[in-house]
Amino acid sequence: MRYQGWLTWVTLGLAVVFVPMALDSKPAPINFTGEIDKVIEKVDPNFKTTTQQTQKSETSASDTPIESIVQNRKLSRTYYYHFDDNVSAGAKAVFENAVNVYNQTGIVKLVPGTGTDRQNSITFFVYSKQMPSNGNTTMIESGHGGPQIIQQTGWNAYTANHARAGLNVYYPSAAIRKSVAIHELGHALGLDHSHYRNSVMYPVDQGNTQLSSGDIGTLKTIYGTEETK
What we know:
This protein has helices spanning 2-17, 36-43, 47-57, 89-103, 172-175, 178-189, 213-223, and strands at 21-22, 78-83, 109-112, 120-127, 133-134, 137-138, 140-141, 143-146, 149-152, 158-168.
C-alpha cells in the first residue's frame, strides 16, 4: 500500500507545520480528521463535561454553553464599557465593531462609560504574551476574556458583572481581528466555548463575525428576551 504510506507522511507533515490560532486561554488546535472534540479535551479536560452540564441545565442542545459563574445569575442587560489607556486605535476599532454586533441583537445594550460598582461593566484591554513552543508547533493565544460576578446579598442586594475582554497584541495579525474581539466579548457577557464551528464562541478562530442562532439563544437565556431600554 505505497499510496497509503505516502498519504500518511503528507498528513503528518501538515500537522507539524500548522500553527493553531487559539482564541484564548482555553485553546484547542484544529485537527484534520474531524475528531475535534478529542483534541479539545486534551487541552481543556473540562470542556466536554462543562458543555454537557450547561446544556442540560440552561440551554437547548444547539445553544452555546454559559460560563459557569454566570449560570443562574440575574444580570441587567445594560453594560458600560471603557478602554485601558494602552489600547491602540486599531484595537479600539475592532472592539467597537464587536460592541455593535451584540447591540444589534437588542438583547444587551453596551454603552460607553465606566458605570458604578452596582452596574455591569466591561474593560477592554490589550496585552503581550509570547506562547512557548511545543515541539514543532506553537499554540497562539489571540485573546482572553471573561466575566467577574460581584454580588451583595441582604439589604440593598445586587448582582453585577465586572467583565474584561482583551487581545494579545504580541500576535497582531492573529489578534486584532473583529472575529477575535467578538469571541472575547462573548466570554465577558457570559458565553462559554461552543462545539459548533458556526458559533463565534468556537475555540479556534474561524473568522466568524455573525452570531449564530445558538449564541443568540444563550444570550436570551442569560438576559431575557425583552427589548433593552
